[in-house]
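Hello forum,

I keep getting stuck at the same step: I have a sequence, I want structure tokens, and every attempt I make locally crashes halfway through. Rather than fight my setup again tonight, could one of you with a working pipeline run this one for me? It's a single chain of 304 residues.
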Amino acid sequence: MRKLKYQGGLTKLITSRVGDKNKKKFEANIDEALALIVGKIQSEPIDMDVVSFSSNRDFYDQLLSIFSFVRYVGMPRSWTLYSDGTHTNEQISMLEGLDFVRVQKTDWDDARGLRTACKQKLQVYADVLVDYAMKYPLGKKLYVYLNHPIEQPTLFLDADILFYAKASVFRSVLEDGSKGWYLPDCEWGNLDSRYKSKNKEEPYQINSGFFLLKQEIEHLEEGLNFLKALHFEYEYFSEQSVFHILFRSNGFMPLDPRLFVLNSADQFDFSYGYEREKIAMRHYTGPVRHKMWQRNWKWQLLIS
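Reply #2:
Ran it on my machine without issues. Output:
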């Protein structure tokens, strides 16, 4: 059916306002929501760790993401949340009120401490990793993710990700022999311009918002040498480009984009382009962040 002029923009405006309203209701009733979730969700343990990186601004998105993981995947062994330094003490207390969550605070102004804390195999790249971390939020994400110890299968994910009914597929992914899995981006191009200038379009470009590692990344040179070659001049997609190179050079596998969704085609629609019963997760990136809250949190978690 043909849309009227400006219909899509008007639809997005309306759904964004609905999303803001639902998010504010969640915020206003968070104590009640926590109690209800604890009482309603019966979750089997899953032998994996989870790691995320987020900020004060992402707090309620992060909480809903955590709840959806427990609801649809299981109770992880641990969830380490690296803070960009903007979380309030109240937010940290609330997050750590969930027994399996620990918030990791970092002194992002202590260059010497950051260098010292780098893994031994990353020391040769410490200068650029610390410089990037001290300048940009995504540099902080790259720093903490690369320095996080991998003791068992570990999922790394952004705060704007929700899980759904097919997320049980994770249990079979854990049994697979691959060293790592990643979420493929929906289109070519979300990479540093200096990488694109020297490389042709490639299938299954990675999205750094969601990946699973079963062991430490073995081959670091190609990805981190690219970072060094930027000469301390970073772009928005520099961090994603480093992970793109690392995952390709280590032979990691793309997840099925029909189940692990990264797509913004429905941003101008009232309806969802993907049915929650038929997908494992969805990354609600900027263009569709409003759809993360377009339906209320009880609908997202299948709680009556």
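The chain has one domain: 7-300. If your local run keeps crashing, start a new thread with the error log.
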